[in-house]
Automatic annotation (TrEMBL):
<dbReference type="GO" id="GO:0009317">
    <property type="term" value="C:acetyl-CoA carboxylase complex"/>
</dbReference>
<feature type="domain" description="CoA carboxyltransferase N-terminal">
    <location>
        <begin position="55"/>
        <end position="317"/>
    </location>
</feature>
<dbReference type="InterPro" id="IPR034733">
    <property type="entry name" value="AcCoA_carboxyl_beta"/>
</dbReference>
<dbReference type="InterPro" id="IPR011763">
    <property type="entry name" value="COA_CT_C"/>
</dbReference>
<keyword id="KW-0808">Transferase</keyword>
<feature type="compositionally biased region" description="Low complexity">
    <location>
        <begin position="23"/>
        <end position="50"/>
    </location>
</feature>
<dbReference type="GO" id="GO:0016740">
    <property type="term" value="F:transferase activity"/>
</dbReference>
<protein>
    <submittedName>
        <fullName>Acetyl-CoA carboxylase carboxyltransferase component</fullName>
    </submittedName>
</protein>
<feature type="region of interest" description="Disordered">
    <location>
        <begin position="1"/>
        <end position="61"/>
    </location>
</feature>
<feature type="domain" description="CoA carboxyltransferase C-terminal">
    <location>
        <begin position="317"/>
        <end position="568"/>
    </location>
</feature>
<dbReference type="Pfam" id="PF01039">
    <property type="entry name" value="Carboxyl_trans"/>
</dbReference>
<dbReference type="InterPro" id="IPR011762">
    <property type="entry name" value="COA_CT_N"/>
</dbReference>
<dbReference type="InterPro" id="IPR051047">
    <property type="entry name" value="AccD/PCCB"/>
</dbReference>
<dbReference type="GO" id="GO:0004658">
    <property type="term" value="F:propionyl-CoA carboxylase activity"/>
</dbReference>
<dbReference type="InterPro" id="IPR029045">
    <property type="entry name" value="ClpP/crotonase-like_dom_sf"/>
</dbReference>
Length: 574
C-alpha cells in the first residue's frame, strides 16, 4: 500500500507530567536559577534542597492521571471522524462496532489497546497510532468465552505490520491456552509494505498458529472487506469462513496483476467476491448480504460448537425425540428411485424444531452438510441431495463432505449420514479432475472418524458411492434402512444389461426379457431385507420412526470410546 493511500490517525500525546500544576510552573521559573548558586539564597532554599540541587518535579495527582487516561482511551476508541465516516459510507462497520455486534453486551475485554508500531523508515516514524490497526481481546457469546481480533481499515488500511501481527499472535495464543474459539474479523489491505519482510513474517506466525490450533479449538474467519495476497490463507486455513456480498474481496493476486500476467480484465467481485467463493471455489462457507446477518450467524455457529476438542458440544434439554413419530417422512421420499425430492425436508423432520445450519449451502449442492441438534445434542448430518445431479458424488461434493466429516470428528460431534446415492458422477472431466483422489478423501474421513456414527439408507445406495457414504464395512456404528432401500452394486436395469448382454441381444423380445430379468434381479438381490439378512443393516425401519430411531441410536453410542493406532499422522489423499 502506498504511503499516500494510508489513513494515518494523528495521536495527541498527554501533557507532560506536572504541566498544569502550580508546583510544576514554579519549578520552571527564573526563581529556580538561584538553586545552582553557591550561597543558596532564600529563593534557592524555598525552591531547592539544602545542597543546592533542584527537587524532582511533583507528580500529577491521581485525578489528573485518570482524566488524562480517559481522554486518551476516548481518542483511541472514537477513531478519526473522517475515517469512520468513510467506512460507514462503504456500508461497513468499524472494528469496534463489529465486535460490539458479535459479542454479548459489555463482555469485551480489550488487550493491547496502546500498542504502536516501532518502524522508522518510509515516513512511518511520525505516524504511530495506537492499536496499530487491529482491535484484539476476548468476550462471550451466549455466555461462552471466545477470543477475537478485528482489523481496523481506518488505520493504515488495516494493513499488517510487526506490532499488528504480534497482537493477533497474542490473542491466538491465549485462545489456544484457554481452550476457546478464535474469531478473526478481516478488513485489511494486506501486508504493510513500509515494514518490509517483518510483515510477511507476521503472517507466517499467524499461519503457524492456525495449523497448531487446528482440531483443538474452532477457528472462524469473517471477511468483511479486502483480504488479498498471503493474507487469504488466514481464511483458507480456518474451519469456517464467512463473507459479505459487495464489501468482501478475497484473492491471492488482484485484478491488476491478473491483467498484467494474462491480459484478462476482471473486477474485484468477479475475481474474489463472496458469490465466487460461495458458489464456485468453495472457500466461503457462508455468504451474507450484510454484516448484521453475518455476525448473527457467527453467533449461531458458535452456539453449536464446543469450546475445544476436550469439551462436549453444548447440549440443550432433551426434546423427547426417542419417542417422536413423524408421519410426513412417509410421504417426502418417492418410492420410485429416479424421482427427485429435497433431502433438506428429511433433515428438517429428523432434527429438533426443524432447525439446522447448512454448511456450504451454495457449493457442491449435490450433497448437504448441516449442524443441528437431535434430542438436544449437537450432530453433524451429511446427506445426498437428489434434487441436484440425482445426488451423485463428484469432485466438489467429495471434498465438501470430507472436510465436514473431519471437522465433526475432531470436535466430538456425532455423525448422521442420510444415503440416497446412485454412484459417482461418470465422465472424462471427473476422471481427469481426479475423482479417484477426491473421492478417497471422503472415504478416508469416514474410515478415520471415531465419533458415534449412524447412517440411514433412505433409498438407493449403489456401488462404491454406497461404501464411501459411511457404510457398515468402513465402520458406521449403526446402520438403518427404510423399506425403499436398494443396496446393490448398481441399479437393476444396468445390472441386467451387463449380466445378460448376450441373451438380450439374441432375444426376439429384448424389452420383455429385460423387464422380466429386472424383476428377478430386484427380488433376489435388491429387496429391502437383503442387506439386513447379511448383517450389513441393523434394522429396516418405518420412515415415520426415523427421528426416534436415530435419537435412540445416538443415545446408545454416547459413551463410545475408540483409540486410534499410535502414529504421527496418516497420509490423507490431499
Amino acid at each position: 500500500m502506498r504511503a499516500t493511500e494510508i489513513d494515518f490517525l494523528p495521536v495527541t500525546m498527554p501533557p507532560p507530567a506536572g504541566a498544569d500544576s502550580p508546583a510544576g510552573t514554579a519549578n520552571g521559573t527564573s526563581n529556580g536559577t538561584s538553586n545552582g548558586t553557591s550561597n543558596g539564597t532564600s529563593n534557592g532554599t524555598a525552591n531547592g534542597t539544602s545542597d543546592g540541587h533542584a527537587p524532582p518535579p511533583r507528580k500529577p495527582s491521581m485525578a489528573v492521571l485518570r482524566e488524562q487516561g480517559e481522554r486518551l482511551r476516548g481518542r483511541i476508541t472514537a477513531g478519526r471522524k473522517e475515517s469512520v465516516a468513510r467506512q460507514h459510507a462503504l456500508g461497513k462497520r468499524t472494528a469496534r462496532e463489529r465486535i460490539e455486534a458479535l459479542l454479548d453486551e459489555g463482555s469485551f475485554v480489550e488487550i493491547d489497546m496502546y500498542r504502536r508500531h516501532q518502524a522508522q523508515g518510509m515516513r512511518m516514524g511520525d505516524n504511530r497510532p495506537h492499536t496499530d490497526g487491529v482491535v484484539t481481546g476476548s468476550g462471550t457469546i451466549d455466555g461462552r468465552r471466545v477470543f477475537v481480533y478485528a482489523q481496523d481499515f481506518t488505520i493504515f488500511g488495516g494493513s499488517l505490520g510487526e506490532a499488528h501481527a504480534a497482537k493477533i499472535h497474542k490473542v491466538m495464543d491465549l485462545a489456544l491456552s484457554t481452550g476457546s474459539p478464535v474469531i478473526g474479523l478481516i478488513d485489511s489491505g494486506g501486508a504493510r509494505i513500509q515494514e518490509g519482510v517483518v510483515s510477511l513474517a507476521g503472517y507466517g506466525g499467524i499461519f503457524q498458529r492456525i495449523v497448531q490450533a487446528s482440531g483443538v479449538i474452532p477457528q472462524i474467519s469473517v471477511v468483511l472487506g479486502p483480504c488479498a495476497g498471503g493474507a487469504a490463507y488466514t481464511v483458507g486455513l480456518a474451519d469456517f469462513a464467512f463473507m459479505v456480498r459487495d464489501t468482501a474481496q478475497l484473492y491471492l493476486t488482484g485484478p491488476d496483476v491478473v491483467e498484467a500476467v494474462s491480459g484478462q480484465r476482471v473486477t474485484h467481485a468477479e475475481l474474489g467476491g463472496a458469490d465466487v467463493h460461495g458458489r464456485r471455489s468453495g472457500v466461503a462457507t457462508f455468504v451474507h448480504d450484510d454484516e448484521e446477518s453475518c455476525l448473527l450467524d457467527v453467533r449461531y455457529l458458535v452456539s453449536l460448537l464446543p469450546g475445544n476438542n476436550l469439551e462436549p458440544p453444548p447440549s440443550w434439554p432433551a426434546t423427547g425425540a426417542t419417542e417422536d413419530v413423524r408421519p410426513a417422512l412417509a410421504d417426502i421420499v418417492p418410492v420410485e428411485p429416479n424421482k427427485p425430492y429435497d433431502m433438506r425436508s428429511v433433515v428438517a423432520e429428523i432434527v429438533d424444531d426443524g432447525e439446522f445450519l447448512e454448511i456450504h449451502e451454495n457449493w457442491a449442492t449435490n450433497v448437504i452438510c448441516v449442524l443441528a441438534r437431535i434430542d438436544g445434542e449437537v450432530v453433524g448430518v451429511v446427506g445426498n441431495q437428489p434434487m441436484v445431479l440425482a445426488g451423485v458424488l463428484d469432485v466438489d461434493a467429495s471434498q465438501k463432505a470430507a472436510r465436514f466429516v473431519r471437522f465433526c470428528d475432531a470436535f466430538g460431534i456425532p455423525l448422521v449420514t442420510l444415503i440416497d446415492v446412485p454412484g459417482f458422477l461418470p465422465g472424462t472431466d471427473q476422471e481427469h479432475e481426479g475423482i479417484i483422489r477426491h473421492g478417497a478423501k471422503l472415504l478416508y474421513a469416514y474410515c478415520e472418524a471415531t465419533v458415534p456414527r449412524v447412517h440411514v439408507v433412505v433409498r438407493k445406495a449403489y456401488g462404491g458411492a454406497y461404501i464411501v457414504m459411511d457404510s457398515r464395512s468402513i465402520g458406521t456404528d449403526l446402520s438403518l434402512a427404510w423399506p425403499t432401500n436398494e443396496i446393490a452394486v448398481m441399479g437393476a436395469e444396468g445390472a441386467v444389461n451387463v449380466i445378460f448382454r448376450k441373451e438380450l441381444a439374441a432375444s426376439v423380445d429384448p424389452a420383455g426379457l429385460r423387464a422380466e430379468l429386472v424383476e428377478e434381479y430386484v427380488e433376489q438381490l435388491v429387496h429391502p431385507h437383503y442387506a439386513a439378512e447379511r448383517g450389513l443393516v441393523d434394522d429396516v425401519i418405518d420412515p415415520v420412526l426415523t427421528r426416534a430411531a436415530v435419537a435412540r441410536g445416538l443415545a446408545m453410542l454416547r459413551g463410545k470410546r475408540k483409540q486410534a493406532p499410535q502414529r504421527k499422522h496418516g497420509n490423507v489423499p490431499l
